[in-house]
Amino acid sequence: MGNKFYITTPLYYVNASPHIGHSYTTIAADTLSRYLRKVIGEDKVWFLTGTDEHGQKIQRAADEAKLNPQDFADKTSLQFKSLWKALDISYNDFIRTTEERHIKTVQKVLAILYKKGDIYEGKYVGLYCTPCETFWLESQAIGGVCPDCKRPVDKITETNYFFKLTKYQDWLVKYIEAPANSKFILPAMRHNEVLSFLKLNKLTDLCISRPKERLNWGIPLPFAPSHVTYVWFDALINYISAVGEFDAKDKYHSKWWPADLHLIGKDILRQHAVYWPIILQALGIEQPKTIFAHGWWMINQDKMSKSKGNVINPVDMVNKFGLDVYRYFILRDVPFGLDGNFSPDAIIKRFNGDLANDLGNLVYRTLTMVEKYYAGNIPPLDIYGLKLNEREELIKKSIQGLQQAVYAPLSSDFDFSLALEKIWELINMANKYVEETKPWNLAKEKKDAELKIFIRLLVEVIRKVSVELGAFMPQTAALINEQIGNDSIKKGAPLFPRIC
Ligand code: MSP
Does the C-beta of 58 come closer than 6 Å to ligand 1? Predict the structure, then answer.
C-alpha cells in the first residue's frame, strides 16, 4: 500500500430505498478507511461516496412523487446522508451527480472524447428495457423480455452518440492480463469472469446519449444539446470529478487519483471493469489500482428487491442489535467477494458466540479478576521484558504479531472476514489460557508472580484487540478502552449480554 489511499463506493441511485446491500459496501469502505487512517495517517485517506441522480428511473420516481427531479433528488439524497450518519460512516466527501463540479467534468470528458473521435453520431436500432435503462441484443432479450427484470423490451430507432469501446477491446484484454495488473480486478473469479467475457464477445460501441424527447433529466452533451448523457456514463465519471479537474490542455490533475480501490457489488462489474477503464484510457488518465466486486446479501437465497418486498433496512438491524454488532456480522459472516444469506438468526448466532462468549467474556472476566485480586488497579509489570513460560510466550508473540496478522489479509485481498478471524484467534487463545491456568488456584496458593503475569497478559491481549478492532467496531473499541485503557479499571456491564 502506498502513502495515500483513495477509496470509493458506488453512487447509490437516489430513488432507492437504502437496504443492507447498500450498507455493505459502505461499511466495508468505512472500515478500511478507518484502518488505513491509523496506518498511513488521517490525512492520507480519501473516502468518497454519493448519489446517482440522473436518468429515466429518477425522472419516473420524481414524476410519481409529483416533484421536479431536482427537488426529488435534493430530498432523497438526504436519506442516504442520514443512513450514513446512523451507521457512523466516516466518508470524506459525498458527491451528487447533479452538482456543478460533476456536470462540468462530465461535459469536459464528453468534449474531449468527441474531439478525439472516440464519440461519434450514429443511429441506434435496438431493444431497450426502460425500467433497467439497458439496451439488449436480440440474442439476449429472449422472448422479447429483459434478461434482468423480465419485463418486455421496446424496439427503438433513434439518432444517438456512441463511445468507441470496440477500439479499446484488445488494449483492455492485454491490460487485465498483464502480470503487473493481477490485482486490477478482484477477487480472482471476477478477474476471470471479465477476461472470458472480453475474449468470448466482441464489444459493441456504447450508446452514451438519450434524445431529449425521450429523456430530459440528464447532463446535456456539449456538442449536441438535443441529447442528454446516458446515466451510467455520467455516473462513472464521479470518481474523477470529485477529486480533480482538467486543465486547458485537457490534462487531468488530482491529488488523489488514481483510485486505490473502487468497491462495488458484482452486478455492476461490467460498467466498472470494462466501460470505466476504457473511458480512462481514452482520456489518457491512469487506471485505478483495484476494482473489487463483492457478493450479494440474499434473503432466503433470493436477491433483495423493492418489488419482492424483502428489503431489510439496516437501521432496523442497528436498532435491534446495535451498530457494532451489525458491522461485525456483515464483515465477518461471509468472506468478502462471496454471496451471503442474511438472517437475524445468523446475527444472533454470531452475537452469542463470537461477541458474548468470546470477546465479551474475556473482557468481563479479566476486569472481574483485576477487581478481585488487585482492587481494580492493573498491576504494573513489563511482560515484554520478562522470560515467560512456553504458552505465555506464544500469547505474547501473538499480541506482538496481531497488527501484521490483521493488516496482511486486509491489504492484500481486502479480506475483512479473515482479518477479524485473526483477532478472534487471539481472543480464543486468551480464553483458553484462563480456563487452563485456573487463576483462582494461583490466588489460593499465593503464587503472586504468576498471577501478575497472567493478569497482565490478559490486559495486553484486550488492549491490543481493542486497537485492532477499532476500525471494525469503533464503539466497542472505545468502550473497552474506557474500561481497561488506564491503570485503574472501570468495570461496566458485560459488553454483549447473551440474547436468548
Ligand atoms: N447507481 C449505480 C452505481 C453507479 S456507480 C458509478 C447503482 N446503484 S444501486 O443503488 O443500484 O446499487 C449500489 C450498490 O449496491 C451496487 O454496488 C450493488 O451491487 C449494491 N447492492 C445492491 N443490492 C445488493 C445486495 N443485495 N447485496 C449486496 N450489495 C448489493 O448500481
Answer: no
Distance 268 CA to ligand 1 centre (A): 7
Domain assignment of residue 459, given as a range: 343-483
pLDDT score for 274: 98
This prediction has a pTM of 0.94
Residue 269 included in any domain: yes
Residues 276 and 364 reside in one and the same domain: no
Q: Candidates 22, 77, 80, 296: which one to mutate for ligand 1, based on the most atoms within 8 Å of Cβ?
A: 22
Residue 323 included in any domain: no
Same structural domain, 203 and 100: yes
Task: Report the alpha-carbon distance of residue 270 to residue 140 in Å, rounded.
Answer: 16
Reference 42, options 34, 31, 53; nearest CA is 34
Residues 362 and 437 both lie in one domain: yes
Give the mean pLDDT per block of 10 residues along the chain (500 residues).
92 93 96 97 98 94 96 96 96 98 98 98 88 82 92 91 98 98 98 98 95 93 97 98 97 98 97 98 98 94 82 94 97 96 94 98 97 95 90 96 97 96 98 94 91 97 98 98 94 90
What CA–CA distance (Å, rounded) separates 461 from 467?
Answer: 10
Q: Is residue 258 located within the same domain as residue 356?
A: no
The CA radius of gyration of the chain, in Å to the nearest whole number, is 26
Distance between CA atoms of 389 and 448, rounded to whole angstroms? 15
Residue position matching grid coordinates 453520431: 121
Q: Does the Cβ of 95 fall within 6 Å of ligand 1? A: no
In total, how many domains does the chain have? 2
Question: How would you classify the pairing of strands 252-254 and 340-341?
Answer: unpaired
Same domain for 91 and 230, yes or no, is yes
